Amino acid sequence: MMLSRHGFPKSVTIYEVGPRDGLQNESIILKTSEKIELVSLLLKAGLPAVEIGSFVRPDLIPALADSNEVAEGLKPLLKSNRLVTLVPNMKGLDRALEAGVREVAVIASATESFARANLNNSVQGSLDIFRPVIEQARNAGLNVRGYISMCYGDPWEGKVSPDKVTQVAEKLFEYGISELSLGDTIGVATPGEVISLLDSLESVGINRNQLAVHFHDTYGQALSNTLVSMQEGISIIDSSIGGLGGCPFAKSATGNLSTEDLVWQLHGLGIQTGVNFDALIEISKWLSRVVGLKIKSKTAIALGADKVNS
User: Fold this and answer.
1) Catalytic residue chosen out of the listed positions 134, 197, 247, 281
2) 10 Å Cβ neighbour count for 174?
3) Which of 184, 200, 107, 181 shows the shortest CA–CA distance to 151?
4) Element (H or E) spanning 144, and its range?
5) 247 has catalytic annotation
6) Is residue 256 within 8 Å of 213, Cβ to Cβ?
7) How far is it, in rounded angstroms, from Cα 69 to Cα 207?
8) Tell me: the pLDDT tens digits for 140-151?
9) pLDDT digits (tens, 9 = 90+) for 275-298
């Protein structure tokens, strides 16, 4: 990875989670056609990777119940774009394969409490479920992205030690994931804690170029944490259009790091993203004025994306 003289990467890959992580906790449920249009607009704006849905039980996350239909509507774009779906188990993987998806993601937990709340299992029990999913996906020629939730803090257990996260990360890479996103699910991380976790992962041979960061902005630290992550060698950053999202299983979690705010910062640093900032603002306006979602991006709000047309 090429670095600038200030220690930042010269380019960054933005991994857009809005259509999955962003929409799953919003009160307004988009129509299937609106979700397909959203993904198409994000791709046209230059986002290199977009998470398009989740093949979970529809009753668990009703907002994503139509993920099969969304994938079907995006079928012409699946081969030429990095479009990813979340799969919780083998049944979800079968649905993803049938839909023609070329990359899937699994979400593990660093803490027992969240594993019970989110996965209805223990940390190790959920990893045991993911292992054959990852292996079968890889055998089918799919890339697999891994997530770890609650990397820094848990609403029931408090602060989370880097060792807990590192143990889960080692197993996910052993099973065959190609990329790991470190989730600050309730938005409590500080820059110092980000550095400590990255150092812990490096101590067991997990390189920075295998990692992505995923911050929520509950304590207003998402951009600060992103900045220090880049200085530490991270060049894959998760974000959500409009700052949409939260976590349906962790009620204290607020929205994700906003894609618009992230791109504003990166372009201000001269970091290449391949993303058209003006197009992002137009998408935010569409989400706010046409779809009716409440935009949380500071940048989009400053540019009037939340104002209703007169």
Assistant:
1) 247
2) 11
3) 184
4) strand 143-149
5) yes
6) no
7) 37
8) 999 999 999 999
9) 999 999 999 999 999 999 999 999
CA–CA separation, 194 and 240 (whole Å): 20
Provide the token pair at 77.
Answer: 């774009």
Q: In the predicted model, what is the mean pLDDT of the chain?
A: 94
Burial 196-209 (b: 16+ CB within 10 A, else e): ebbebbeeeebebe
C-alpha 230/C-alpha 9 separation (Å) is 7
Q: Find where tokens 């020629």 sit.
A: 141
Per the CB < 8 A criterion, the answer to whether 9 and 270 are in contact is: no
Q: What is the pLDDT of residues 171-197, one digit of tens each?
A: 999 999 999 999 999 999 999 999 999
Residue 281, domain member (yes or no) = yes
* Distance from C-alpha of 21 to C-alpha of 83, rounded to nearest angstrom: 14
Helix (H) or strand (E) holding 181: strand 179-184
Residue 224 forms part of a structural domain? yes
How many domains are contained in the chain? 1
The label of the residue with tokens 């799969």 reads 87
Interval 100-122: pLDDT, tens: 999 999 999 999 999 998 888 99
Residue 195 within any structural domain of the chain: yes
pLDDT for 310 beyond 50: no
Task: State residue 255's pLDDT score.
Answer: 83
Looking at the domain assignment, is residue 4 inside a domain?
no
What does pTM read for this prediction? 0.95
Q: How far apart are CA 264 and CA 259, in angstroms?
A: 9
User: Mean per-residue pLDDT for 120-142?
Assistant: 97
Place of tokens 């929520």: 216
CATH number for the domain harbouring residue 263 = 3.20.20.70
Q: In a 3-state reduction of DSSP, which class is residue 6?
A: coil
Q: Give the domain extent around 288.
A: 13-302
